[in-house]
């Protein structure tokens, strides 16, 4: 069954009485090259079990099934389940699980459904839940790679370097846990219905070793969030807004300078090693 033909998709959806849901961010691919390129770019092969989120009508799912040993697709919209039963009928290595990925025990599900394999994620993510889904996937700590389609602006933030306008707390989170890169862009015309924004496919290779030594990840990310909470503020003033109840401004300035940073530096100029050093010193002072 052709899963990327606009005419074919419309006929398929009409035959099942399906209507698009804006709240679920449903946009189906009508460019046959895109799912194939996503699957190829993910690097998965017969040694991998793949978790897909939001399979839609199964275009990417089918492409993944031809490469991976096993594919588990999690679909929230129950109205798509009978459609997927039709479109994936010939894909014997695919299992569709009804449910909400944000309520799923991801690590347990992956290990139980695909035992003995290496694990990867490959998905066209609903744009309204990109950040919480990526956070949950990273924190599951079972995947070697995560390849996702997201809004181009989000992709730029994921890959942004210190000192750039796109660099922020989410950039630090992604780059602390993984090495991200943009594979290619996907125009609105590649979807039905076409979204209002350009999309990008990003691949993340999860790190076995972190880019800096962090003793307390909770403190590290607390410092990162504080540094970006008000971008126009200096780092010292940003930290004072969060930690001022326990350390005065002079003490915070001393900590910042003690890390080899300018007293007037802003959070957006710090890389992961600088944030790690600052979090370590701050954590020691607050003990």
UniProtKB/TrEMBL annotation:
InterPro entries: KsgA/Erm (IPR001737), rRNA_Ade_diMease-like_C (IPR023165), rRNA_Ade_Mease_Trfase_CS (IPR020596), rRNA_Ade_methylase_Trfase_N (IPR020598), rRNA_adenine_dimethylase (IPR011530), SAM-dependent_MTases_sf (IPR029063). This is Ribosomal RNA small subunit methyltransferase A. GO terms for molecular function: 16S rRNA (adenine(1518)-N(6)/adenine(1519)-N(6))-dimethyltransferase activity; RNA binding. Keywords: Cytoplasm, Methyltransferase, RNA-binding, rRNA processing, S-adenosyl-L-methionine, Transferase. Specifically dimethylates two adjacent adenosines (A1518 and A1519) in the loop of a conserved hairpin near the 3'-end of 16S rRNA in the 30S particle. May play a critical role in biogenesis of 30S subunits. It catalyses: adenosine(1518)/adenosine(1519) in 16S rRNA + 4 S-adenosyl-L-methionine = N(6)-dimethyladenosine(1518)/N(6)-dimethyladenosine(1519) in 16S rRNA + 4 S-adenosyl-L-homocysteine + 4 H(+). It comes from the Bacteria. The keyword Cell membrane does not apply. It is an enzyme of class 2 (transferase). S-adenosyl-L-methionine binds at residues 27, 29, 54, 75, 100, 124. The keyword Transmembrane does not apply. Its main location: cytoplasm. Belongs to the class I-like SAM-binding methyltransferase superfamily. rRNA adenine N(6)-methyltransferase family. RsmA subfamily. GO terms for cellular component: cytosol. CDD domains: AdoMet_MTases. Residues 34-208 form the Ribosomal RNA adenine methylase transferase N-terminal domain. Its EC number is 2.1.1.182. Gene3D superfamilies: Ribosomal RNA adenine dimethylase-like, domain 2, Vaccinia Virus protein VP39. It is found in: Cytoplasm.
